[in-house]
Design brief:
738 residues, alpha+beta, four-stranded antiparallel beta sheet, 21 helices, 38% helix
């Protein structure tokens, strides 16, 4: 056990002389003289051990609760043990002769029930647009021979204590030919940005500051503004080597002509573009154009030839097309499309910034309808965007995207609309089923998006013939799920046209009783564990052992002692007693979803037992289950939306568990207090923080102990040296005196 003591008190290597001359047991003396500090370390160590005992007890309870929750309140566990599942309390199960029909409910009626024919199954009104929604291609802008290096770049200035971002537009270009021309164009672009910003008083920023061009320099008409940040291209153009604390937000002399303009060749050879063809992404590096400068010129034609060749390599020939816009070949723009445009989706997922500015091709461009662009930018700001669905007007503005429009329609109307990028068409479904449901869509937006107004599609009713207790009946229902005389019927759409469907009734009562019995046993185990730990008193006779005490004991003695020392670690713990009280109340209280209580179905507290444990009268429970399984299920799993309502017993227990041990990535009260072994919370919890505090204090005391030890050793060493000198002098005198 010496290693434990050494670890706690630090190294005992002595730096000095022992009692060679004095005969003193220096080790023992130093140990006695440092006893006070070692006792402080011991107290910290024992306090830490008590926290570890408490943490271990917390984790034991938390682990039990987690296992209980996973078994009975998790859908991952399956319906056999999940008490919240609709199948848990089913006294009977029903096996249909067709997988497309399902029934639940009154077993006696189902025994005498059969379906003769299903002529139709209720469906919603549904319509898929006939016309494609997009042009099934995308295009570049005009492919210029050069671009301004400042296009799209950003600079941040500070004026009157507030910072502003100024960004050159991506289509910023130089039209002049001299430095003075360029300076004036830069100043004009920056002033356009200033004009769109507000100062801290809400006024136009351009009312306070303004750029001007003077002899090729970019200056402020009014000073006091600083440059906080800027792109490399802006710094180079403005002749600024480095942004210092007081760098003014204007050029340092005349702007630098070199680098202001980038040619198409420079951009191409430093760029790449990533295409996406039916989900397969391939990146094309344009620098390889330099390998054949005869075939691949640095212009629209060269770019078209190079991309065509490379796309054929990565996706195969005959899959995609790149061509110069045939409707306007002088515009120097490219058209991109898939050869099989009806089903193949082709677009750009990523593109170098300068290449995008030079060509107008953007990440997200594809041969389908753009879902994230405003409809005003796609169809024109002045287009007719009126829309009426089943008599209700839906307000649409030009700034809304197609995604925005779909969300608004789905939220505010009685239809749901989806867009398929694969087919490039819209599908509209009514939210209700039945012949009364229909789809009528009109207005300018319908003609724009759908290329047509939609009128008349209707849903269908369920038409079914059945026999119950020997009586044949034919019914019409507007849904596929409905109830007949206590029989809940669910029809799959594939049930249409089926005939002569029968049902086998299987008795599951004994299985349900066994599941409930196991649930109560597991619940009782938790109640017993928490109750025992919160009532078990700690013994002052068994404090945590210090390392020195352990060194004097056998392993068996230590084991027995520690068992006693760990007792009472949760005695009277408020979190645990609250949890225990909540569990008892949750299981034994009344609900607002059923008139039953547990005692009505044969579940009650054990006789003369105040612990909260429950016992099951199997015969009584079985009788109630056969009589009304749905009411028993409601007692446990029923819910009510009214605020403050008491939900079913199992719902209440689930909520108590979530509050204490968390759910779906959250943490609960117990986990926050003590964490769990081997997970993210193992050292991120309140007790672990307190343990670390004790560790830090022990480390500080250990350093103090080492200093104290060395001080005493230095004193004893000085004593030994003094005695040695005295001894030597005594010997000399003796020798001199003969």
């Amino acid at each position: 056990m010496a290693s434990i003591s050494n670890s706690l008190y630090g190294s005992t290597i002595n730096k000095g002389f022992g009692g060679l001359m004095s005969g003193l047991d220096t080790d023992e003396l130093v140990k006695q003289m440092t006893a006070a500090t070692r006792n402080k370390i011991n107290r910290q160590y024992q306090s830490k051990q008590k926290l570890l005992y408490r943490q271990e007890a917390y984790r034991e309870v938390s682990s039990k609760l987690l296992a209980f929750s996973d078994k009975y309140f998790s859908y991952a566990a399956g319906s056999k043990t999940n008490i919240l599942s609709a199948n848990f309390f089913e006294a009977y199960s029903f096996k249909p002769s067709s997988n497309y029909v399902n029934v639940t409910g009154n077993a006696d009626n189902i025994k005498n029930f059969s379906i003769n024919s299903i002529t139709s199954v209720a469906s919603a009104a549904r319509y898929t647009t006939e016309n494609i929604a997009s042009s099934q291609s995308f295009s570049s802008g005009k492919v210029y021979s050069e671009m301004a290096s400042l296009a799209g770049d950003t600079m941040t200035i500070e004026h009157d204590g507030k910072r502003y971002n100024l960004q050159f537009s991506k289509d910023f270009r130089f039209t002049g030919s001299t430095i003075d021309d360029h300076a004036e164009e830069i100043a004009a672009e920056l002033n356009k940005q200033l004009d769109s910003l507000k100062d801290k008083n809400g006024n136009k920023l351009s009312d306070s500051i303004k750029y001007e061009a003077v002899n090729g320099e970019i200056r402020f008409e009014t000073g006091g503004s600083k440059l906080v940040a800027a792109s490399k291209d802006i710094l180079k153009a403005f002749n600024i080597d480095k942004i210092e604390k007081d760098t003014i937000a204007s050029s340092n002399g005349a702007i630098e002509a070199e680098g202001l303009i980038r040619t198409a060749e420079e951009v191409f050879l430093e760029s790449s573009i990533t295409f996406d063809f039916n989900g397969i992404k391939k990146t094309i590096d344009l620098s390889k154009m330099a390998e054949d400068t005869i075939k691949y010129t640095y212009d629209t034609t060269g770019l078209k030839e190079y991309l065509s060749d490379e796309l054929a390599k990565v996706y195969g020939s005959g899959k995609v097309k790149v061509e110069i816009d045939p409707s306007n070949p002088s515009n120097d723009s490219l058209i991109f499309s898939a050869v099989n445009s009806d089903t193949d989706v082709f677009g750009v997922s990523n593109i170098s910034s300068d290449l995008s500015i030079l060509t107008g091709i953007k990440a997200g461009d594809n041969n389908r309808l753009s879902m994230s662009k405003s409809i005003g930018s796609i169809y024109g700001e002045d287009a007719d965007f009126s829309l009426e669905i089943n008599g209700k007007t839906i307000e649409i503005t030009s700034s809304m995207t197609v995604n925005d429009i779909i969300k608004k329609i789905n939220a505010e109307s009685d239809v749901n609309i989806t867009y398929s990028a694969t087919t490039d068409k819209f599908t509209i479904n009514s939210k209700e089923t039945g012949i009364h449901s229909e789809i009528n869509i009109s207005g300018g937006l319908a003609n724009i998006l759908f290329k047509e107004e939609i009128s008349g599609p209707k849903g269908t009713d369920t038409v079914m013939s059945y026999t119950l207790n020997g009586q044949p009946v034919t019914i019409n229902r507007s849904t596929a799920n409905f109830t007949i005389d206590g029989i809940n019927i669910e029809l799959n759409k594939n049930a249409e046209g089926l005939n002569d469907i029968t049902f086998d009734v299987i008795n599951n009562v004994d299985e349900v009783v066994e599941k409930v019995k196991k649930f109560i046993d597991d619940y009782n185990e938790i109640i017993t564990l928490i109750g025992t730990k919160t009532k078990e008193k700690p013994s002052s006779k068994y404090p945590p052992l210090t390392p020195e005490q352990q060194e004097e004991m056998t392993e068996k003695e230590i084991e027995n002692w520690n068992k006693e020392a760990q007792k009472g670690s949760l005695f009277g713990d408020s979190k645990m007693t609250t949890l225990l009280s909540n569990l008892r109340t949750g299981m034994m209280g009344k609900t607002d979803v059923s008139d039953l209580v547990l005692a009505n179905i044969g579940i009650s507290p054990a006789f003369m037992d105040t612990s909260g444990k429950l016992v099951l009268d199997e015969q009584k429970f079985k009788e109630k289950l056969m009589e009304n399984p749905d009411e028993i299920a409601s007692l446990f799993t029923g819910t009510k939306d009214d605020e403050g309502s008491k939900q079913g017993l199992a719902i209440q227990i689930r909520d108590i568990l979530r509050k204490n041990i968390g759910a779906s990535g959250t943490t609960g009260i117990l986990i926050e207090e003590a964490g769990l072994d081997g997970g993210l919370t193992s050292d991120k919890n309140n007790i672990s923080k307190k343990i670390k505090d004790h560790d830090d204090r022990m480390e500080a005391l250990k350093r103090s102990l080492e200093v104290e030890r060395q001080r005493y050793w230095n004193q004893f060493t000085a004593l030994e040296k003094a005695l040695s000198n005295l001894n030597a002098q005594s010997s000399w005198l003796t020798d001199m005196m003969g």
